[in-house]
Write a structure and sequence with these properties.
binds iron/sulfur cluster; about 50% helix; TIM Barrel; binds S-adenosylmethionine; about 10% strand; eight-stranded parallel β-barrel
């Protein structure tokens, strides 16, 4: 694309009126003085106060900034143990022992921005640039589906060649793919999007194409740091990004996902920022984010900051910040990605994460390439100059599912909630009352059974079937399921899945 048309495209992306409409008296919802004041006033919180706050989380109520700041300021190791235990309890109450898997699909690394921490930034001349054709999108999807995945998140650099129309086409092409499996067939049933902020009209195009969740990370909520790490380009506009998900809600996308890139600035500030973002979404639309992500800064091609930032978050702090988010926003999904090492992933899944990825390839065309070279999606070498950053865990989906099953956790490929209208405020209400968890338990069992029949290795199938027996016994003993015909219907559905029928859900 000619240089002139790139710059004229850039000029028309940001719609100032689609920022201003959400401001209150000209101000956005990140009040830095207020955040620092909460952190300052809550130093050395006493045990009684922390225990009271934990009771509020356990009642599945969102914490306020003051309470969250108190958790952030806990230093006592004994209190931390209580907080880790409470985090797990909250997760079990809302999400039971389920974990949801997804696969990221990087469609393009063309980018007009200069985020100093990212391998895709426009001035990184080492990066091999590529944008997938729709045939390639389908080919990548086939590779992902063959692994057993049912959910995808598509990821794009910000560029006129990967604009909303391209994204909508990619979504539609992904939904078209169907691949025969051992018994049934495989397909992607939910496509989420991680892409730069767009206008309401553009977001409507994604909605019409069948987007699941729209995810935008603020990276850092701290305005001065934001400016330093986004020196120019469209992404330099802090508020255009801050209200990306408000616009998505207005465009009809009622599942939105927030996140911060931990390691750019003080983690305490970022946790408060994520909370204020949640509160502002609740204030405007009556519902908070569907998920929260907390990627940690990871080495990226040619990025000095990605290895030298003074704000990098160590493993212990990372586990603590995930626990605080679990307690502060009890009903929201928490995502841990393959950026993190396997051992740490295990640890944070224990304190409250609900979604993760596996078999992940983040090079453009990475899945197809891995299949061509090795005939498997396992542990291929990572090409630093063709991907955004380096992954910490490259294990296959089957290995991660088996490990979690050994820990007593059931993998859910359920996407039913969305297709039964259990989204947005409806799903939030169900999550808050812990009712969604019950439907999800049934659908988790049905989709896990599908996976075991269609894709699991013999070792995973053996461990998985044992876990299913335990789950089935539990379902049969819970009074909620005996109401009406729920249990009866479920038993029929389970038999249908076992005999090869697919995409059966409650
Ligand atoms: N280009 C779009 C944007 O910036 O919103 C979406 C895709 S971007 C590839 C997805 C996310 O990757 C970013 O929001 C950022 O948080 C994360 N990211 C970028 N560089 C990273 C790094 N070095 N380590 C870990 N995560 C990184
Ligand atoms: Fe581009 Fe996103 Fe990377 Fe920034 S984070 S350089 S916008 S791909």
């Amino acid at each position: 694309m000619a240089v002139k048309s790139i710059s004229s495209w850039i000029d028309q992306v940001i719609k100032q009126e689609e920022i201003d409409k959400y401001l209150i008296k000209g101000e956005d919802f990140i009040d830095e003085i207020e955040i620092y004041r909460h952190l300052e006033e809550n130093q050395n919180p006493d045990k009684k106060r922390i225990r009271d706050i934990l009771q509020k989380s356990l009642a599945i109520k969102r914490l306020n900034p003051d309470e969250t700041a108190a958790l952030i300021q806990v230093k006592d190791p004994e209190m931390w143990e209580e907080m880790f235990t409470a985090g797990l309890k909250v997760k079990q109450k809302v999400y039971d022992n389920r974990i949801v898997f997804f696969a990221p699909l990087y469609c393009s690394n063309l980018c007009v921005n200069s985020c100093v921490y990212c391998g895709f930034r426009k001035d990184n001349t080492h990066e091999k640039r590529r944008i997938l054709t729709m045939e390639e999108v389908q080919e990548e999807t086939r590779a992902v589906v063959t692994e057993g995945h049912k959910r995808m998140i598509v990821v794009f650099g910000e560029h006129p060649l990967s604009d909303a129309e391209y994204m909508a086409e990619a979504i539609k092409n992904i939904y078209k793919v169907k691949v025969p499996a051992r018994q049934g067939y495989g397909e992607i049933r939910r496509v989420n999007v991680n892409a730069a902020p767009m206008s309401i009209d553009e977001l409507k195009k994604l909605w019409e194409a069948g987007i699941g969740t729209y995810q935008v990370f603020q990276e850092t909520y701290h305005k001065k740091m934001y400016k330093e790490v986004h020196p120019n380009g469209l992404k330099a506009n802090y508020r255009w990004r801050l209200y990306a998900l408000h616009r998505a809600m207005d465009a009809g996308i009622d599942d939105v996902a927030i996140g911060a890139l931990f390691g750019l600035y003080d983690w305490r500030f970022e946790v408060m920022g994520l909370l204020y973002h949640t509160i502002d979404l609740e204030r405007h639309f009556g519902i908070g984010p569907h998920t929260i992500s907390f990627p940690r800064l990871t080495p990226a091609s040619g990025s000095w900051l990605s290895t030298h930032s003074p704000w990098k978050v160590d493993d212990d702090t990372f586990k603590k910040l995930v626990t605080i988010l679990r307690l502060a926003v009890p009903y929201t999904g928490l995502i841990i990605t393959a950026r993190e090492r396997a051992d740490l992933r295990r640890e944070v899944i224990k304190v409250g994460c609900t979604q993760t990825d596996a078999s992940t390839k983040i090079g453009i065309g990475g899945y197809t390439e891995a299949l061509k070279v090795l005939n498997t999606l396992q542990n291929t070498n990572q090409d630093e100059d063709a991907q955004q950053f380096i992954l910490g865990d490259t294990r296959r989906l089957d290995d991660v599912i088996r490990e979690l099953a050994e820990m007593g956790m059931i993998t859910s490929f359920c996407t039913a909630g969305y297709r039964c209208g259990r989204t947005g405020d409806k799903i939030m209400g169900l999550l808050k009352s812990c009712t969604e968890g019950k439907f999800c338990k049934l659908n988790a069992v049905l989709t896990f059974k599908e996976y075991l029949e269609d894709y699991a290795s013999p070792e995973t199938k053996a461990i998985g079937e044992k876990l299913l027996e335990k789950e089935l016994a539990e379902i049969r003993s819970i009074p909620f399921f005996k109401r009406g015909k729920l249990l009866e219907n479920f038993e029929t559905y389970y038999q249908r899945v076992a005999s090869g029928e697919r995409d059966v859900y409650i």
